[in-house]
Amino acid sequence: MKPATRSFYATAVQRVVDHVATHLDDAPALDALARQACLSPFHFHRIFRGMVGETPLELVRRLRLERAAWQLATTDRAVTTIAFDAGFETHEAFTRAFRSCYDDSPTRFRERRHPFSGPVIALAARSGVHFMPDGAPHTFIPVDTGGRSMNVEITTFPELRVATVHHTGPYNRIAEAFSKLGEIAGPAGLYADPAAMMIALYHDDPESTPAAQLRSDAGLIVSDSTTLPPSLDETRIPTGRYARTVHRGPYDELGDVWARFLGEWLPASGHRLGDGASYELYLNNPHDIPSSDYLTELRIPIEPA
Q: Residue 288, Cβ neighbours under 10 Å: how many?
């Protein structure tokens, strides 16, 4: 491992944690936070979640609730005012969120006696970052769930030619694009191509982009000699050096796998992210096997050695 590389990612994430914790009244500008971390918004989201254990928005919401608890216990500010400061549009929404975290309504919480002056019942957080009334430093503890020891290979892959169907909308609905791809690719004989393999490309950060505007592509890798139907687009993924790992299990576990890959393995690996897209390859047919046996290959671009 190269300590300077881990230090680069830890320093970048720490800078963002400090900014979030000291600007709780500001709407988090996630693209700006990504620029502070010197990362693309898409990669920043996954690295931050992997290292901190929360997305930036989840961190903001939790710290605002911790601040609200402190204000309820130590000030006479109106509950409605505290709710608005915590980012809630209604008293009712604040009460529901507060009760789910503190197992009590804001009013009953205020009625208790709180024999301490620091953070009031800090909510569980693996990062160790909590609201501090005195503005003390917020040094985060990098999450360690074993991701540093993931089975990862560094390989140079050739350029990939991909037949794609574009999808705009929530990422969990990309299956609609894969269904359309199958309706076109099957009759056109593309699955008989020796290079045929299903692939998904995701272009936007779901933290900073509204779900309805998220862009992704359902794709099928094909040979250069294959003629594509006019209803399919063509995408080229350039040759490059990639880190690859394979996950066995349901697709709904992939978010956590990405977080470990980018938030734990990458900072500890001595490698830096390169230019280009990260993507998923689906190595077997989900219609033929139980979800516990799904095989998905994850690839991230790595800077040249």
A: 7
Segment holding 241, helix H or strand E: strand 240-248
Domains of the chain plus CATH, in order, are 3-143 (1.10.10.60), 149-301 (3.20.80.10)
For 153, phi then psi, to 5°, come to -115, 145
Q: Give me the amino acid identity at 28.
A: P
What average pLDDT values come out for the chain (305 residues) when binned by 10 residues? 65 89 84 78 86 92 95 93 95 96 93 63 90 85 91 96 96 94 96 96 83 95 96 95 97 92 92 89 92 97 86
pTM over 0.85: no
Q: Tell me the sheet residues that pair with 297.
A: 246, 281
Residue 1 identity (one-letter amino acid) = M
Cα separation of 246 and 293, whole Å?
Answer: 12
* Phi, psi (degrees; rounded to nearest 5) at 191: -70, -15
The DSSP element (H or E) to which 69 belongs, if any, is helix 56-74
In terms of Cα–Cα distance, which of 215, 268, 227, 245 is closest to 51? 268
CB 205 within 8 A of CB 44: yes
- The Cα 181–Cα 185 span in angstroms is 6
Closest C-alpha among 231, 126, 239, 253 to residue 187: 231
CA nearest 38: which of 268, 298, 273?
273
- Amino acid identity of residue 174, one-letter, is I
C-alpha–C-alpha distance, residues 47 and 50, integer Å: 5
Question: Reduced to 3 DSSP states, what percent helix, strand and coil does the chain have, rounded to the nearest 5?
Answer: 40, 20, 40
Residue 170, strand partner residues: none
- 17, with CB counted inside 10 A (0-12, 13-18, 19+), is buried
